[in-house]
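Order emerges. As here.
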Amino acid sequence: MATSNRNAVMRQVEQIIRRLSSLSTLPEVAAGFLPHLTNGRINTPALSEIIESDPALTANILSLAQARGVTFTDGIPSVAEAVATLPPAVVRDAVLSIKIFQVFDAEYDPDRQRPLARKQMALHALAVACAARSIAELVLPERDRQLAFSAGLLHDIGKLALDEVMPKSFAKIVTEAKERGTSLSVVTQEHLGLDHTIIGKRLAEKWALPEEVIFAIWLQNNDPNVLREDLPRAKMALIVQLASLLARQCGIGQNGDFDAIPSSQETIRALGLNAEQVETLRNELSSQVAAKRDLLGFDIPGGLHVYCDRIAQTAAQLSQDHSQMARKSQSFAAEASQMSFIHEFLLSVTPPMSAIEVAVNFVTGFQKHYQAGSVCMYIQISSEDMFLDLICINDSGKIATSLIRLPAGTPAVPVILQDKFDLAGVVETAPWLLEQIELDMAEAIMAPLLTNGRAIGAVLFQQRIPVETEQLAPLLSVSTSIAANIIGMKLAAQKQSVLAERFAELLGRLRETRSDLAEVKALSGIAEMAAGAAHELNNPLAVISGRAQLLLDIETDENKKQMLTQIQQRTDEISEIITDLMTFARPGAPTRIILSLRELIDEALKRTAEKHGLSQVEANLEGIEMLGDVYVDREQMLTALGHVLSNALQSYKGDSGPITIRPAAQQVGEAAAFTIADQGGGMTPETLAKAFDPFFSDRPAGRKRGMGLAHARRLIHLNHGSIGLASQPEKGTTAMITLPRM
């Protein structure tokens, strides 16, 4: 994916997520908490237990407690203390305002129709939360243990958010991760430019969740050796990391990761635990989750219908309170209308807000205070940015945010407005804006947003009150200057946050780098061994082969001739083994050229047929032409594809076929992705995990050396491609290959 398009996708995802005010809960959970809100009172203990077991309710209550300045004992936030401290009416309103997941969808059946059922995600979150609290009992002070439960419960809110705001795209990402046998984080990063941990971190920051929870959400997948070394609040992230691994090992719920479960040994050591303690935690986890599952009513038959019945009962009980609240709301609105615009705007700005959220507040207040028609504001994050964030509010008060593109060679703010504050007509100074704004702003006036001597954007508005420009300009100069400075500070903070995220991403890659280094060292060892073997064995082998040939030429006894022939064949095989080792360990540097992928596959099929003594390989090529050209070393790719095709043929009894080659369902970035699938014997999970290991083979001794797939992956990686396998016994194997286009 080109950098500009990748940035645009990231920004669009950020805008969508930014509008998310809360997560949804399941109807079964809602059916459980509604009885505790009726009869004119709130059953605080029972309600607290339900809230602290549900991600949506937990996030909502902790965020509300922060916004209302709740002071927690020892400074450690907890759901139970927040529910007990906040006014009952506030807790009730917060719980009732939570959205219910697809409650009125007549065809709602998550376990059957969705690739990743929401209830399964909720079960996984519960399992991680229970495991996190149990781990915390071993490694944290008592005051921090309940916070560990909340951190585990909320660790995947980034995934829940993606499922909430872009369900179709999220379903495709989950499906691709499943097909490729990889983690959801990898596929999300490829498609959206950022993974669910970053999205979860930003949501947690937006909702002002506890910092320990934010760090656990953000750093849960990082190398435990790095987290152990002086990173603040690292222990909570390590606890959540181990808890997630235990939940996956126990098979409780699903989280969308389809890769092999990573080893937990490093995390266990980093937390100072031993194997016996971890085994005890694993054995107790299922019963802990079962208790929470019963509490939330996950197994209640007809959960949707129960929820609908209870919401009707609750609505009747709350009608009188609603009337009273409506009267109070009218009173508050009347008082707020008397406040000045600048005072109102400054009070609306909170530390967790992003620059865009501050801009939304500003244009909303601007329209109200100045009695303007439609109002728009656009912001340029940096002087090199070709995409601008646009916020618009129309006459009816509807707000929309989007990205617009800055034409090449055009300044984001007209030159006449860059150095000092002034007002100008949009038509005369920035006609390119009118082409990208859906509202009719032809008569609009533009005012720059100036901060530290630089214009970071502008405000466009339709003037409705009869005020001369000379009178209006000084007023707008003050308000826009205040807005520009606050937005500028928010942009600077966001840049620092992005830099920190990139730093954490680099730290997270250390594990992969260490693995690659170990592989390089192993290959170096193979190379040294192969070079030594070649030096020591080639000369004796040549002598043996030559003597055998001489004896064969003069021998007349057929039995002895047969034995001499076998000696020659075996020496040739040993020589081939040495050659294979050298080729695998020390392949030549690729000479990459642009090639037709279809022609490359056709030639590989032809060579494979000759190798197996077939007139042709029984292969079905479906739509490969649409993938176009690739940029690879021709001979290396023919060798690699030949190994994959041979492996597919050998999965059948008799090396026959068929083999199906088609484009992959999802094309990733600037690469051609395709699959090579057979319907042969397939592989067990144990065999699949070792399929790319050199010398590994599940075939009878003497059949093959087990270098084919290892060699194929080596050559594909050298050419900046990738290969993965998915397989099921008796159903066949699918190789997923990507090759660079340029």
Remarks:
- Residues 341-491 form a domain with the Beta-Lactamase fold (CATH 3.30.450.40).
- The chain has four domains: 19-296, 341-491, 512-585, 592-740.
- Residues 551 and 564 are 7 Å apart (CA to CA).
